[in-house]
Write a structure and sequence with these properties.
The structure is a single chain. By secondary structure, the protein is α/β, with parallel strands linked by helices. It is 32% helix and 23% strand. The strands form four sheets. Strands 6-13-7-8-12-9-11-10-14-15 form a ten-stranded mixed β-sheet, sandwiched between helices. Helix 13 crosses helix 22 and helix 19 packs antiparallel against helix 20. The longest helix has 27 residues. The protein starts with a strand and ends with a helix. Bound molecules: zinc ion (2 copies) and fe (iii) ion. Fe (iii) ion binds next to helix 13 and strand 21.
Length: 743
Amino acid sequence: MKTHADIKIYGIVQGVGFRPFVHKAVTALSLCGFIRNTSFGAEGEFEGRREDIQKLVSELLYNAPTLAFIESVEVVYSDTLRGYIGFDIAESIKGEKNRTLISPDIAVCDDCLKELFSESDRRYSYPFINCTNCGPRFTIIKDIPYDRKNTTMSAFPMCGECEREYLDISDRRYHAQPDCCENCGPKLSFYDFNKKELPGDAISLAKEYIRDGKIVAVKGLGGIHLACRCDDDTVVDTLRKRKHRDEKPLAIMCRDVEAARRFAHISADEKRHLTSNRRPIVLLKKRESNSLMYLSENGYIGIMLPYTPVHHLLLADGVDSLVMTSANISDLPIIYKDEEVFEKLSGVADGFLMNNREIHARCDDSLMWVLDGNEYFVRRSRGYVPHPVCMSTKLLPILACGAEQKASFALSRDRYVFPSQHIGDLKNLETLENYEAQISHFENIFDVKPQLLACDMHPDYMSTSYADERSQKERLPLIRVQHHHAHMASCMADNGYDGKCIGITWDGMGYGTDGKIWGAEFLVGDFSDFSRYGTIRPIRLPGGDRATHEISRVAASLLYDSGLECDGTVKKLVESGINCPSASSMGRLFDGVASLIGIAQTASYEGQGAVLLESAAADGCEESYTFCIGYDGGMYTFDWRQMIRAIVSDKNSGVDQAVMSARFMNTLISFASEMCEKIAHDTGIKTVALSGGTFQNMYVLKRLRTSLSALGFDVLTHRRVSTNDEGICLGQLMIAQAQSKRR
Ligand code: ZN
Ligand code: ZN
Ligand code: FE
């Protein structure tokens, strides 16, 4: 007895080899009918025995291809047969509602690599080889549905042979939209510093340049990289000078895990992430913490493995590890347009390895630690974006505009939140333009018209102005979210937690509800509301912004406030109170202490003092300084003055920097644990969320978590979005959702 079934499949099923997979399953089960892509995923009609259709559904749910992401499968049975003969893959239709999900860019797969290096293959050494299981996706998609005509591959009509593969359901390239070969696809070319195209094999020329110590711009998936040898500090110094990137760590790309092990310790979990098809930059402990200082001045080094065929060809023989850093100048966004490359990188790159395929969406490399076997993001971007974060309830269409540093935004649809790729610090026009362009792009490809906006409370953030303008222009309600409340909510949402919790939100600075600068907060609340239960004694910042760069000013201010001798100029500033704002900021406390201990006197990038202090700290030192927690105006306050005096006395008696650094961070862990016990005693809440840029410090993160767990707390840490301000948008969105219900 035959039956008919209409099946709808929701999720990422396009461009991931889903239809051939269905074809195979259907043939094995002797079902008839068709399947086609739709804007929500795929749909099909199937006829055959009911139990076989049920088997198909369970195949769809449990055995879909690796890159597929099946959200749900809807089946409607009926007795009216259409009388299908055989099985068909039908044209995709663009529905009235675009409800599709889009795959991130995926590293070249093993099958393609085999062909790339096999002389007898027709794609031997073809640098744009890809298939249904790998290759560019997000960065080339201009519109949906995901068909070649809606990607930047539309400029390359397929040749006969590629088309044959594309149409052959038994072929690995069946319906692989970016499929191409030497005869029909994009091509590489190599230019010298003068923009003159050089004759000869582009890859060989680039390798030659690199081997000779030159700097080569390499066009990749989501933007341009600058590549050079990583084993020669003079070459790397030149790169830093030209890029105006004085001290920030540089990532390297290694041929394989074996090559990477020369630089760093790699655990089994770290290896799994390094070699995953998402290919993030993984922050790894250096083999020797004082080595490779010209690449990274702290104890970690960021390593990634090759993810495009071009990378594999560049690293195939000869030099096996390269500096591979985003081509941008100072704080501007990554360069991605051909016409910008020569102009903006003139004087920076000596050679240019380019191709003629347009990049549609900029997307930087992702950067993460591996924590408990999972991603712990510093930057969630290529390989992960635009994959959604799934929530347990349906959300309004909301646009959350993020913060300022590490700007990002998030858009919601149904149960999905789509956090954007890395945008950069929203402090210049170029970044703002990219921010606005990516918002429109996301709204288009996910077909979301926001009904509600959320932004930070800070009046001067560009993201706030953007939200304000849009709210007025489109008459949309706008919810302003306190920065640290958003951090806490982000960590809650990240863990699927929606109860009440204590949020330890530590970062550089965020705008408080009292108009003051906050940054070392103990909040209590949930998505809809919060109260401030604890913080640290405010730190005066002589010279305002100048103190974030000249961190010795913060040290002087800490000394002054603790009743100790300090620098005369700073003393005058603090006493006059002119241009001397106060901030209860953990980031600034780290800066001040880093300077006191003698680790750094200036900071050329955000958090530098803290990063250096962490890598200076001795393992195995368990002591803390004594401290006291005051209770004032309904709030617990950690008074750091006693600690500062103890550090100075340590320093005067010649205690090692490593020991002072450890003692300082141990003190933070002790006081935070004690503060949580007090708050738990007052509120009965035993769940703690850790969020904010300070929790990029692995020493503090891991030990604070251990300490709180030992006290019986459930500790939430980030898993799917970044702990720094990049993750703020998720929290803003969840808070806006919760608060909209109360209106
Ligand atoms: Zn492949
Ligand atoms: Zn071809
Ligand atoms: Fe923050």
